[in-house]
Fold each of these.
Amino acid sequence: MRILLVEDDPMIGEGVRKGLRQDGFVVDWAETGEAAELALSSHAYDLMVLDQGLPGKDGLEVLASLRRRGSDLPVLIATARDEVPARIKGLDTGADDYLVKPFDLDELAARIRAILRRRAGRAEPVMRHRGVEFNPATREVTRDGAALALTARELALLQAFMDRPGAVLSKTQIEEKLYGWGDEVESNTVEVYIHALRKKLGADFIQNVRGVGYLSPRAAA
Amino acid sequence: MNSIRKRLLWWLLITFGAGLCAGGGAVYLTARHTADEMADLHMRQIAGALPSRAFSPIDGLSREDAQEEHIVVQIWDRAGNILYLSDRASNMPPRSGSGFATVQFGGSEWRVYNETVGDNAVQVAQPVSARTQVAARVALRSVWPLLALTPLFGLAIWFTVRRGLEPLERIAHQVEQRSAESLDPIADDDTPGEVKSLVAALNRLLKRLGQAFDTQRAFVADAAHELRTPLAALKLQTQLAERAADDAERRAALHTLHGGIDRAGHLLAQLLDLARQEEAARSRERTPLRLDALAREAVGERAARAFALGVDAGVLHADEIVMTGDLAGLRALTGNLIDNALQYTPRGGRVDVEVRQEPGAALLIVADTGPGIPAEHRERVFDRFYRVPGMRAPGSGLGLAIAQRAAQAHGAVIELDGNPGGGLRVTVRFPC
């Protein structure tokens, strides 16, 4: 899951990025509204964590113009403004959730997971697909009841497939989900991770659609 | 009690009473004058009607038969023998001469008329008091209906005063009904002109109060916001330290944590300083001091930090300036300006402080070789928590606001200019 973090305070930005990475998210950090808009126009994100009080272009302006462009990107506002009118305004401008600073890192991660779950139309916190169970909160994976050990990148890849079972993901889409800014992407790494996942979850868990990408087919009846 | 209603009531009643008395008096005087003329005419008529030839003396009438006007008639013959006396009790001596006169007789004043009628000398007299009584009766008769109406007038006055003061009472009631937070203007529709100006003045005061409250509220909200940010950073860093997998990671998190605590501490100190400057602007102790010494001291205190930052900070020029001022306030002013300059000046840059005496003004100048402040932001940088967009600085956003308050308390103005060599040039102009 790739997240855009918009935060002008260097200490908070650094801390949130570090914390969310530990929770298995890929995080890009923009420090101004303008930088956020540039990032939004050039990358595909699963969610944006937005600070409201930004120098220059304000967080709410970024959100409003995002919604005007018709984007349904989930947005969580994390701000020091805690007055009820400010919260209402934030939510009514198009935010999916509102978190007041100082917040708990674990709560932030849980709220992000909840928003993503709702977006995928799931009520259950645990994802199930083809006999594989994945719990995004604990990051535990079982296959037919047996626990599996997966690396962070493998988990990210698994989550991408389980999030949209039956959908074809292009190699670029997969790369977007695996790597943030500044991460080195080697040309064949996606293939390496797919290979590793197949080995752990069964060869038919991920199938190659030649020239298009990869998909994890819905369970055969 | 000092109440408009009572005062109005009293004055109206007193005026009314005085008017009544004056009116009665005037009626009396007129009546008296008329009574005099009438009585004189009457006396002349009596005298004219008396017999013109001599007759043998007749006994006068007794006292009881005397008429209301108490007119006494006396008749003498040529030899001076009394022929007739209408009232034996009032046997006045004959007066020489003719016509009207006022004489003293028997302890009271009399109006006397003498005429020679044929062979007889006639004297008709009337006590003045009788005429006075008539006039008084007339006066009383014309005044008493007014007197009888006095309670009615009093009631009318009371009602009028009450009605007239009603708008005042309504406004007092409106103001009384308010809670401490309610600063909405008082409704002034259908209030009379005199009260309208009072209401307008009250409303202006309420508006100013409202603005002051809003500023204060905004400041508290801003302060809460600004305090939350370092707190959020602290919380994040503690959590990261807890999560740390190894010592190196934990140490790094703790190191950042320390920085965050320093930052929160600095913000708190600045907030307190700002509050102090605002408070001090009202009550300030002034002592004689040397501005140049103060500037040197401020630079000296920051020398170690400047060295660590790789910035060349020093005093470029210092005229000897003695002025009276608030030492703490001026220290905050100088310190914040120099701190600001140090913060924005990159390694290898310069911060120059100057103290100059000019005709009519003492100048404190702090110039740096940092990025400067774009002209369009120079107005707003004095606002609390305002930071120039795109400028990365760890400051509290309060430094210039504190400096501004301290300057204002000394009647000084702060000017922001571009430094000729690039950077910012802050000039504090003290009047002297």
Amino acid sequence: MSIYLDRSRSIGEFVPEPDDGLIICRCEEITKGEIRQAVHEGMWTMTEVKRFLRAGMGLCQGQTCGRIVKGIIAKELGLEAAELPGNVDRAPARPIELTILGNEGEQ
Amino acid sequence: MKRYELLVVGAGPAGLSAAIEAARLGMKVAVFDENSRPGGQLFKQIHKFFGSKEHKAKIRGYRIGAELLSEAERLGVEVHLNAVVTGIFEFMEINVMENGELCHYKGNAVLVAAGARENMIPFEGWTLPGVIGAGAAQTMMNLHGVRPGQRVLMVGSGNVGLVVSYQLLQAGIQVAAIIDAAPQVGGYGVHASKVARTGVPFLLSHTIIKAEGTERVTGAVIAKVDEKFRPIAGTEQHFDVDTICMAVGLSPMSQLLAMAGCRMEERRGTVPVLNEYGETSVAGIFAAGDVAGIEEASSAMLTGRIAGTAIARKLGYLDEETFSGEYQALKEALSRLHEGMFSPENRGRRDLTETDEGIPLSQSLLKNGYIEKEELTRFPGVVKQKGIHPVIECTQNIPCNPCQDACKFGCIAVGSRITKLPEVAKDSRCTGCGMCVASCSGQAIFLVNEDYDETGASVTLPYEFFPYPKAGERGLALGRDGRPVCEAEVISVKSSPVMDQTALLTIRVPKEMAMTARFYRAKEG
């Protein structure tokens, strides 16, 4: 079993840090403390944190914060960022207006 | 649904190069780019490229971009701008958002050359206006003609941080300092030196702590870090700046490949697993350029050409024999770029102590951004001789050799391995033409004449700042560290089309300053 999935492992108590108020996901205004807290509430993957907090679900689709969020979750779990799977990529890769999505090109 | 033989995502150096190869062999190609201008990063790269002739060395990036674009157009490649590819689906179908519609295209092959995005690091105040990516600063200056600020702190000493710092200076913006958490300058020593000699301090083992200001950036606080990159209390330093530029690395924009089901791996960012021709684990989907692993534009053009050629072979436009010949040549050109101190396999290494030739590296260059005069004499480009002669302050094994071709008199030798340090012949027949000075992409070549007159020496240096000084003008000569060392008189400023906007500024300094004076500054007021 991948280490990040072993939920029986203890990661210790949530310990507040002085920079917990730092905004990490700028689009959705999610702070570092909220992400760290979410890990302690059981959100151990990027996907879980994203669905729980909306970090990475804004206009830029995690282009800026994705890497940082991953680093914060990994650190909280005592892992290297590379050990943690990233977000699942799906179409549309960029935000798209519904009027365009519904406007299929004639060609 | 429109059909093409090859669909290319991204009109940067990799995408255009691949499109050109495929179209040249008779394929019907469409290229899509989400930006309003093609060329990717090329059009904002106003510096001269490294490498050798086959890598378009000593040509400025934007000129290479223009060349690629006109070649693509000549070959009938359709370039769609403001065209955002939103997904890659089964059977080589892509969705493109363009002109207010969602259009469907189908190809026999798809090449993803989507490039990279800039990394950010969070710190107090990092969301304030005025904290920007170095690439964003470059876009503002070089594409839109807008200064991002008046006084900038650069965070990151890799090539992006160094090159953009220099371009900020060229745009008339002050650079307060270049900082890096690492203990050594990350980019080419020659890039660091050309910034350091203008007087920009390098602070290694320093990180940004805080952007000050309420509405926008009004200052920055940095601090020294320990070996685990943790800030050391009590070492804080304040800078009055209105802009903080972040040059802390790039990440591949590989989402389209991941969603297409290509096997991905973590290698300094999420990248596709590719075979030697750039094909992903999904047959028919290829990747080239930064999206497949961060390098620079010269490699991107080559990986693009390799992929374009391989796609042509796969689809029957190129026979096996011709392909293997072309592939071999491209692969060799790529491997020539992948040698030396900054090769992909040496990336991040801090334990290199000497050059390939066995010469100890300049430690000052790695720590301060400039070489100490005392360290110079051990390098083969620095030879003392009578009369005018080149002094080549190129001390790291980087892939570059235009200096060798520039000298018609055979004074400069790099050899066939382009990462070798250039050597100046002992009894060079230098005429003082200065072509080597103008051709050096790293601005590391100077002409020195210690016998200029009774008491003075002349130093010719590469100069890329407007307005040019005028002959007869008096100012200050600066040392490699950017500190004034003596008075200097401008003897001449030469510029010609072949030098491509690198002017030759010749100053007269006291004889004993011939090997110290390396930059010129007009007196204030």
